[in-house]
Amino acid sequence: MPLRESSRGNVKTNVIHTGDSAEVLKSFPDGCIDLSVQSPPYDNLRDYKGFTFNFEVIARELYRVTKDGGVCVWVVGDATVDGSESGTSFKQALYFIECGFNLHDTMIYEKAGTLPSSNRYTQEFEFMFVFSKGTPKTFNPIMDRKNKWGGEKTFGKSSFRDKDGSLKVSGQREVNKIGKRSNIWRYANGYGFGQSDDIAYKHPATYPEALVSDHIVSWSNEDDIVLDCFAGSGTTLKKAKELQRQYIGIEI
């Protein structure tokens, strides 16, 4: 069952709007969203029964509705047409910057299951662009990277150079056993791996539940408002609810 519909700062939460995101977003007040996580349709990789979306309007509206310090995660890939990748992902990233967002991080979603290509290296990743409206107000780093030399002392003195070129030297230190995750995230994908609910696979394009959970944990706190303006199978909304966030979905 969904969380009870409520209102926060003149925006209803724990709801799913049926409609075109470019129009529905216009009804939201300024600065009401803490985090949005979404994956738009990629070029012409899926039919979606002829539905299209106005990317530029949606990008501008996402900037307007995002709170100062809020984050927008945009998971996207490119189609290959006549032997050449479309570059749509890069064009979209640059447009988000034009709208006022900072490109806080260019992250990689590495797929554990991919098909080989005939005349190029196997394509096994998509971009996860992390845009922020100013400096992110929330960052809860995921600490799950085991350090090979954890618990040991560094071999020698540590050194680094300041911007002016001066050398700074410090003594030995103990290496942490667990470190902060890198910005390349690997997930199992495909039927039976990415989603825990079979009904989700009725949608033609899903992304892994774990990917969404990790972004929600990283860029928001409990009771924050999480938006997905391409709600699809509902993965973002499901994980937001499980993680005690308020959710808003839009799906045409």
What's the topology here?
Blueprint: E1 6-8, E2 11-13, E3 15-18, H1 21-24, E4 33-38, H2 55-65, E5 66-76, E6 80-81, E7 84-85, H3 88-99, E8 102-111, E9 125-132, E10 143-146, E11 158-161, E12 167-170, E13 178-180, E14 184-187, H4 209-219, E15 225-228, H5 235-242, E16 246-251
Parallel strand pairs: 3-16, 4-5, 4-15, 8-14, 15-16
Antiparallel strand pairs: 1-2, 5-9, 6-7, 8-9, 10-13, 11-12
Helix pairs in contact: 2-3, 4-5
Question: Can you describe what's shown?
Answer:
The chain has 252 residues and is α/β, with parallel strands linked by helices. The chain has helices at residues 21-24, 55-65, 88-99, 209-219, 235-242; strands at 6-8, 11-13, 15-18, 33-38, 66-76, 80-81, 84-85, 102-111, 125-132, 143-146, 158-161, 167-170, 178-180, 184-187, 225-228, 246-251. It has an eight-stranded mixed sheet with strand order 3-16-15-4-5-9-8-14. Strands 1-2 form a two-stranded antiparallel sheet. The chain has a two-stranded antiparallel ribbon with strand order 6-7. Helix 5 links the parallel strand 15 (225-228) and strand 16. Helix 2 (55-65) crosses helix 3 and helix 4 (209-219) crosses helix 5.
